[in-house]
Amino acid sequence: MCRYSVYTLVLLLFLLGFISKHHSKSTNPSKLLDLSAQSFRQILQSSRTCFVYFGKHVNPGIEAFLEQLEMSAHALEDYGIMVGKVRNHIIFNKYSSTLIALDQGAEVLRSFDVDTVFDVNAIVSHVLFSVLFNEVRYVHTPAELLAVERAARGTRDVVMGHIQVLGLPEHRALMEAAFVYGTKYQFVQTTGAPLLKHMGVADPASVPARLWFLHCSGVTHRSEPCPHTLMRKPLTTINIHTFLQLMEAPLLVEASVDPEEVNVVFSHLNVPVLFLFTQSETMQLDRDTAQSVARRLRGEVGVVLIHRDNLGVKTALKYNAVYQLPQEEVRYLSLKNTDEVVNLFREQLEEEEEADEDEGDEDQWSSLDVLDDEVAESVYRDRGLTLDTDSLSELTDQTFSTAVTQSRLMVVLFYLKWDAVSMAFLQSYLEVAEALEGVGGVELGSVDCGEWTVICRDQNITSFPSVLLYHSTHPPQRYRGMLGTTSLHRFLLSQVPSPVFLSSSAEVLSFLEGDLYNTHSTLTPIRVLGLYLPTDTDVLVFEEAAQSLRGEIILGLFVHEEAQRWADEHSVMLPALLVSRGSGIQPEAHSLSSSSSSTSSTSSTSQDLLSQIQRFTLDPFPELGVENLPGYVEVGKPLLVLFVGGEESVEVLQSLEEMRKAQSTGHLHSSLPCWIHLGRTPAGRSVLESYLGFVPPLPALVLSQLNTGGEVFHFPPERPLLAAEIIQWLQRVQNGQEPPAGMISDEAWGPPVPFYNFLSVMDEEAPGYAAQRSHKTKPGAKRGSERGAEHNSPQTSPQTSPQPPPHTEL
User: Fold this and answer.
1) What Pfam families does the database record attribute to this sequence (predicted)?
2) 193/263 same-domain check
3) Is residue 405 part of a domain?
4) Kind of pairing between the strands at 527-532 and 554-559
5) Are residues 235 and 255 in the same domain?
6) Which residue, of 266, 516, 733, 783, is most buried by count of CB atoms within 10 Å of its CB?
7) Which residue among 322, 357, 392 closes a domain?
């Protein structure tokens, strides 16, 4: 619209009162109020909101604007806002002399030029934004958004809209939603590209208006980010309303009838509905899977879990998924995994949104956003996340020495900003720091080894991330546990003196029963007692090993003549270890005499003793999980794994008891009996499927011989899972009378796309340089002997490279 130089056009937004009855009975059918001097003075004293146009002249351009203004009067009436125009010369001269932003009463909230409010969408959006100025936060940077999230955590959810230009239809739709839902959600508006990058948008310039729902009401930790859901449909009033209704709807709905008879909120919202199925044997696992799918499709598709066990469900067993598009019939499918379920809907959405894009280019470059390391990919996805490090001391070369010497316990994380595992663990480390705020004597700090290289060199940091504990009275201790919040938090809370020096048999009994340091029993229930005579020379070795295990196991030391009586009661020779697994349980006794006499070096003996203690404290029939799996795999025995379902049924308890009976006979010594609860460890389902190629009925017993060729044996499901049957089956396996049910192939971990085949690139530059592609080096093989054999016999296999250094665990 052209600018008007002959006269001044000013639009003012007022807080006005209720219009008098005389005015409301005007014969003018239009919603646009034509205000006289008297009626204008009346509304100045009222409390209703009114949008007023001041103008003296009318030309074709103004006539077009007045048409838009009249249309906005009808729209704003729904929000209790009146629209009027004033042509009085005295009033016009008073309010058009300057542009003023005043307060409530008879004062101006905001003034606009005609070019700003050029049509009905611009008028409605700007008016509502001005009225909601104190309720809708306008943010520019990720830091400002994080401040909004921090204030909303645990109380309310956040709706953030990105608008390219104010005054467009998308802006109006966002403001109309804020007017309706503003008391329930915290609305945020932005027009800046930095926030798009913060939300994971790679190319902000090509992104249309977007809306995110930030689930902050369920977040309690200050350092935890608010999960967010993107609305993938265009920003219209009806789409936003539907999206917010989906956010309020249950994540997963369960039903006991056929899909055609299900009546849920998703059907009324005109969105696709996905039906998945479950049975009583796998109900918890299926529910977890359905919830996972529902989270991935949240805001786009409603997910319903159908219970097959109900007589009202007639759907054939060959179908495991049903979906229904709005206003269409249901469709039955047989899908292999959850990715197929998600792709079923995502492909349809992508066809609608990207119909005009070149499919060839998309196929070539879309996979570049997928890294060949899951940890690196997760960090890449969260690369725009700004971490709240207020609870952490960032140490430098000026503050490091003071911090570690003046604190009773200083915990320091050494990390690199460009290392994916470091950045992933940093989030867990911050959660631990927040959880330990207020715990006396414990401080947490960090050192960026990319910036403070001298500190990391002096502390002998060679792998990242590394956590060291600096005690005021002991040498630094390295944390060797899992790189996760729970493990590190438990480790730090378990910091008691190690070893605990005991001086009498009464103290020994109290230690083994868990009365000493009873507050730590829930953190580390296992206790290890070293029994030594005063004449034993290996006491210092035990003390050194105990210091290395501080925080992992509670260790006691009894150096006394009465140690012989304790050894005699448990039929072992001194020095010895007693392992207590809880009050009322007979301690296990292990003699150390053979191992201590076989090693001459104190340092190597200390390491051997540490390994012995770790081996003795392993659970004889453990429940495997993500955290303890590496320790049991290192034992080197075939894994005899019992997979049980998600619910603690009578069948599950009986099968576990039969496994314990079989173990007590001593016939399972050649394998490591263990079990996996698929409800607590959902990854176990993938493990079982990779073993057998399918998921059998549970409970299922599997023998996995990873160290002898990768053969997998499956206990026949038609046979009763009894102790005698298990022992007989294992004997048949050892005699070669049972065929393997599967084989774990030693597949190469290749790059996901050719672009990431760095070894091939190196070979092109220097043939043979990327030697890792050849056969793996056998454990224990020496490089020198390999090279010698290759030199003496040209017929041998190509040269193998040494094993790469082990990657830190997460």
Assistant:
1) Thioredoxin (PF00085), Thioredoxin_6 (PF13848), TXNDC16_2nd (PF24509), TXNDC16_3rd (PF24510), TXNDC16_N (PF24508)
2) no
3) yes
4) parallel
5) no
6) 266
7) 357
User: Minimal CA–CA distance to 102: which of 10, 13, 37?
Assistant: 13
Please tell me the distance from the alpha carbon of residue 645 to that of residue 539, in angstroms, as a whole number.
47
Terminal-to-terminal C-alpha distance of the chain: 60
For residues 203 and 190, what is the distance between their CA atoms, to the nearest angstrom? 16
Sign of the Cα torsion 82, 88, 93, 96 reads: positive
> In whole angstroms, what is the distance from residue 356 CA to residue 354 CA?
5
Residues 238 and 260 in one domain: no
Neighbours of 397 (CB within 10 A): 13
Distances 407 to 117, 398, 438, 479, 658 between C-alpha atoms, Å: 62, 16, 14, 18, 51
CA 202 from centre of chain: 21
Residue 733 included in any domain: yes
Range of the domain at 475: 379-494
Low-confidence ranges of the chain (pLDDT < 70): 1-30, 35, 37-38, 40-47, 55-61, 87-109, 205, 222-223, 346-386, 438, 517-524, 593-604, 646-647, 706-709, 745-759, 761, 763-810
> Residue 182 belongs to a domain with what CATH number?
3.40.30.10
Radius of gyration, alpha carbons of the chain: 35
Total Cβ atoms within 10 A of residue 629: 18
Residues 6+ apart with CB under 8 A from 117: 11, 123, 126, 127, 167
In DSSP notation, 107-145 reads: SEEEEE-TTTS-SHHHHHHHHHHHHTTTTSEE--SHHHH
Domain boundary among 246, 263, 294: 246
Predicted local confidence at residue 15, as pLDDT: 36
Q: Angle 505-510-511 (CA atoms, 0-180°, nearest 5)?
A: 95
Overall domain count for the chain: 5
Give per-residue burial for 570-584: e unless 16+ CB within 10 Å, then b: bebebbbbbbbbeee
Q: Which residues contact 627 (CB under 8 A, 6 or more apart)?
A: 481, 482, 484, 486, 487
Q: What are phi and psi of 452, to 5 degrees?
A: -110, 70
State whether 169 and 258 are in the same domain: no
Domain assignment present for 676 = yes
How many residues appear in the chain?
810
The predicted pLDDT at position 673 comes to 92
* pLDDT on residue 44: 66
259 and 148 fall within a common domain: no
Inside any domain, residue 451: yes
- Answer yes or no: do 155 and 209 share one domain: yes
CA distance 307 to 253: 11
The per-residue pLDDT for 412 is 94
Domain match, 730 and 627 both:
yes
Assess whether 110 and 144 both reside in one domain: no
Rounded distance between C-alpha atoms, residue 123 and residue 62, angstroms = 15
Bridge partners (DSSP) listed for residue 743: 711
Q: In what order do the strands lie in the sheet with 576-580?
A: 500-502, 554-559, 527-532, 576-580, 588-591
70 phi and psi angles, rounded to 5 deg: -70, -35
Indicate the SS3 state at residue 32. Answer: strand
Beta pairing partners, 436: none
pLDDT at 447: 93
By the 8 A CB rule, do 641 and 704 touch? yes
